[in-house]
Specification:
CATH architecture: Up-down Bundle
Order of helices and strands: HHHHEEHH
Radius of gyration: 36 Å
Largest sheet: 2 strands, antiparallel
CATH topology: Outer membrane efflux proteins (OEP)
Strand content: 5-15%
Strand order of the largest sheet: 1-2
Number of helices: 6
Structural class: mainly alpha
CATH superfamily: Outer membrane efflux proteins (OEP)
């Protein structure tokens, strides 16, 4: 029972580390793609200025934006390396790359609550309570007087004798009341702990259901509503800039909004996978 509870805890921590490392890798790739796009924009601005279609002040502005993105890339790479190293330390292996895992399946509220008697933590607490009750029962039985039965047979030339004996040991000085009370108190405490553990697991599952639903809704909204709008705005402003109808600052601002939207998509997806994976494991299931 204890090993099953420990396995569930280790699985939850490994899942969190795995998801964190995977999305850290995805964030690096997103930032590297953004760096390439801003670098291309920088070259475009330089060409426009060289042929007299742009203002010279636009060059340092876009170059500063490129350096800012490069700093973000370096920071994200450091975070990725740390996350991958943590995961590798837990697995005892060297890891070079982690792919984003599939989103954990959705768990219905009733299925998540289920029969809590099968939950590893509850099973371990119930097993401890059962052992404590058995110990209390043994202590109570130890006060029962010991009874010894015996018999004998003897034969001589002039007689034969057959008899029996009954011996009862009475604990006149020690009825083991102290041991019994201690065992009964331990059994009551174990039963209370088992009930408290069941209540704690129920509360944890309810919280995990709420967290999974909340993060799933946020992730869906980020990907379906916010990101497409940011992408459309950035594309429109870049085309407008190429036609000479918008300034570089507008393009840089749109690029920043787009990058923030892409990073928010990854952050919300990471939180969704962590929370929904925790719910999946907490409900007594195993992730594929």
């Amino acid at each position: 029972m204890e090993s099953a509870a420990l396995r569930a805890e280790v699985s939850a921590e490994l899942w969190r580390l795995f998801v964190s490392a995977a999305y850290a890798q995805a964030e690096v790739e997103t930032l590297e793609a953004t760096e390439q796009q801003v670098d291309a924009l920088t070259r475009l601005v330089r060409r426009r200025v060289a042929v007299g279609e742009g203002r010279p002040v636009e060059v340092p502005r876009v170059e500063l934006e490129l350096e800012r993105v490069r700093n973000d890339v370096a920071s994200a790479r450091g975070s990725r390396d740390a996350a991958v190293a943590q995961l590798g330390a837990w697995l005892g292996a060297t890891i070079s790359r982690v792919e984003v895992p599939p989103t954990p399946p959705q768990v219905e509220d009733a299925a998540a609550a289920g029969d809590l008697a099968w939950h590893p933590r509850v099973r371990a607490a119930l097993a401890r309570a059962t052992a404590a009750r058995a110990e209390a029962s043994t202590a109570r039985r130890s006060r029962i007087p010991a009874v010894t039965l015996g018999g004998f047979y003897s034969s001589e030339l002039d007689r034969e004798a057959i008899g029996g004996r009954l011996a009862v040991e009475l604990p006149l000085w020690d009825w083991k009341s102290g041991r019994v009370r201690r065992a009964e108190a331990a059994a009551d405490e174990a039963a209370s702990r088992a009930d408290a553990e069941r209540r704690a697991v129920t509360a944890a599952i309810a919280d995990a259901v709420s967290a999974c639903a909340r993060t799933r809704a946020i992730a869906d909204r980020q990907r379906a509503d916010i990101l497409p709008r940011a992408e459309d705005s950035a594309r429109t402003l870049e085309r407008t800039f190429q036609l000479g109808e918008a300034g570089i600052l507008d393009v840089i601002d749109a690029r920043r909004v787009l990058l923030a939207a892409r990073r928010d998509v990854l952050t919300s997806a990471r939180e969704r996978d962590i929370e929904c994976g925790a719910l999946f494991l907490l409900s007594g299931r195993e992730l594929p």
